Amino acid sequence: MDKKKILLIHTGGTISMSEDVETGAVLTNEENPLTRQTKELNELAHLIVEEPFQLPSPHITQKEMLILRNLIHSYKDKVSGVVITHGTDTLEETAYFLDLTVKGSLPIVVTGAMRSSNEIGSDGLYNLISSIRVAICDEADGKGVLVVLNDEIHTAENVTKTHT
Ligand code: ASP
Predict the structure, then answer these.
(1) pLDDT of 31 over the 80 cut
(2) For ligand 1, is residue 32 a contact (CB within 6 Å)?
(3) Whole-angstrom Cα distance, residue 90 to residue 78?
(4) Distance from the alpha carbon of residue 113 to the mean position of ligand 1, in angstroms
(5) Average confidence score pLDDT of the chain
(6) pLDDT over 80 at 37, yes or no
(7) Cβ contacts of residue 147 below 8 Å, gap of 6+?
(8) Domain containing 25 — which CATH number?
(9) Of all protein residues, whose CA lies closest to atom 3 belonging to ligand 1?
């Protein structure tokens, strides 16, 4: 079977950061650590990667949300689904905004991570793989924007972050 085309949009947040081994600070890298894994991820789907900005999610405003919405619309007829990596602090706001503003039945999955890419138990790559699996699944069609984290699938309409 032909691999589906998925638009993968990186926006920043812990999922695309690394912990500084000396200070313990979680920082943005020059190179997004997730883009290094593109070869492995491409085995699941044919990925088209976009990185319109790299921001901690509390810095994401309506302006960036609109950039995401327009980016999704520009790819709408070219891909079978969309996966967005995002900081978890305001992930639910972006997911809900897209749920309200993106037209059509394209599966859109938003994901993040609680631990950065080089921390023990890092969950970013795992959540990203799970999200791509959901985005390529026929049953995800027409479900609205979904949030996938920690082996769970949530609807953007109902999800909220309750624990840091
Ligand atoms: N401060 C990060 C953010 O929301 C937290 C995270 O990604 O979990 O960008």
Answers:
(1) no
(2) no
(3) 28
(4) 8
(5) 93
(6) no
(7) 91, 92, 95, 109, 110, 111, 153, 154, 155, 156, 159
(8) 3.40.50.1170
(9) 87
Residue 29 in this model has a pLDDT that exceeds 80? no
Say how far apart CA 37 and CA 34 lie, in whole Å.
5
H or E stretch at 113:
none
- Domain residues for the domain of 93 are 5-155
> What tokens appear for 116 in the block?
């950065």
Nearest to 131 by CA among 27, 31, 34, 2: 34
Residue 162 within a domain: no
- Residue 38 above 90 pLDDT? no
Report pLDDT digits (tens) over 123-149.
999 999 999 999 999 999 999 999 999
d(Cα 53, Cα 86) in Å, to the nearest integer?
Answer: 11
Residue 163 included in any domain: no
Give the total number of structural domains in the chain: 1
- Tokens standing for 134? 């959901």
Q: Tell which atom from ligand 1 comes closest to the C-alpha of 17.
A: 7
At 21, the pLDDT band (50, 70, 90 cuts) reads confident
* pTM of the shown model: 0.94
Specify the length of the chain in residues. Answer: 164
Token match 């500084």: residue?
20
